[in-house]
Write a structure and sequence with these properties.
With 117 residues, the chain is mostly helical. It has 2 domains: 62 residues; 32 residues. Helix content is 68%, strand content 5%. It contains 2 helices and 2 strands, in the order ββαα. Strands 1-2 form a two-stranded antiparallel ribbon. The longest helix is centred in the middle third of the chain and has 54 residues. The chain is rod-shaped and about 140 Å long. The N and C termini lie far apart (113 Å).
Length: 117
Amino acid sequence: MKLPVPVTGTVPQPTKHNPNPQPIVTVPQDNFPAIVSYAKECEQCKLERDKTKADLSDRMQQMALADKQIVALQAENKTLLKAARGTFWSHFKSGAKMIVLGGAGAVTVLCVTGHCK
């Protein structure tokens, strides 16, 4: 804090009744408006700090919720991709079906052409 007039401090001489005197600080009256202004700014900063802490808390909660949603969407995406592409067993099943149908078709064609007689 910049003051127009410097603050002075003095320490009285120790006496028999007061062997450890406390320092005395003198604040010139010209500094009072600057001190009052500084105190008001400090109170405003405290209010803004509390509001910012509350906002930060809300943002952290929103971020945690967003992280949960992202994880859920990734799991859903994996499930959808697996259903769209199929699994090993679904491919095996459709491949086996095609082999059986192709074999039956080949036997039918061979028998129709008279090869089986």
